[in-house]
Small CPxCG-related zinc finger protein
Amino acid sequence: MTTPSSTLRGSDAGQRVTCIACGETLDRGDAREYDKHGDRWDREGKQFEYLCKPCHRECCHRNREGLEEALVAAGAGRTDRKTFLERFCEVSTDDETID
Ligand SMILES: [Zn+2]
């Protein structure tokens, strides 16, 4: 009898994704899927965004109100990352001044 000494990871193992918030590259298995449109059940032909755990936690702490709109307004998935992050920072900063 052999005792399994290691657990095989799923087929996602080894796939690398990029956090949309900080640009960190991480294992897809460690990332949190983020769908900027919010309708995560409609997966057909979609590309999901990913957040690393720290950023995901931050997202949960901050007021989610308008986050989807902010991401879409910032051009998530439609512009290059640099432009998106610049725009997203602007939108986010606007948000915080309301508080
Ligand atoms: Zn991140």
